[in-house]
Write a structure and sequence with these properties.
Layout lengths: L9 H12 L5 E2 H8 L8 H19 L3 E8 L2 E9 L1 H35 L5
Antiparallel strand pairs: 1-3, 2-3
Helix pairs in contact: 1-4, 2-3
């Protein structure tokens, strides 16, 4: 029997998928924050908030055994570098990517059903 998939919030899932899809990129809390928030200027309060959120998501993944890396301390506090997925993290990233793709397909199908209903309500269908 297949185990139920874990759902992640947007940033948590984005982190797993980014590391999975770019396995040779040396990810850190900094690079992931920049990749997930490209419009934020470094040193703004919004960037610091995003940095803290990414750091928290990385810590959660470490607790779950999905990511491993080196913990360091910098001017912004504790951060992680040399982040890699564990085998369990690779499975979770694949499941999250597939879950997002399938939910997109479900939304497309629901839109088609709505268009058919609208057409029938206007008398354009059987």
């Amino acid at each position: 029997m297949r185990r139920p998939e874990t759902e992640f919030d947007s940033a948590e899932g984005d982190i797993l998928i980014a590391i999975y899809e770019w396995p040779d990129v040396p990810f850190s809390t900094y690079t992931l924050t920049q990749r997930l928030n490209p419009s934020l200027q470094i040193s703004t309060p919004e960037y610091r908030t995003a940095f803290a959120h990414v750091g928290s998501a990385i810590e959660e993944h470490i607790v779950r055994g999905l990511i491993r890396g080196k913990r360091s301390r910098g001017t912004d506090g504790v951060f992680f570098e040399h982040l890699k997925l564990t085998p369990k993290g690779e499975r979770a990233a694949i499941q999250e990517r597939d879950r997002r793709a399938s939910s997109g397909r479900v939304n497309e199908l629901l839109e088609v059903v709505e268009r058919i209903k609208e057409q029938r309500n206007r008398g354009g269908g059987s």
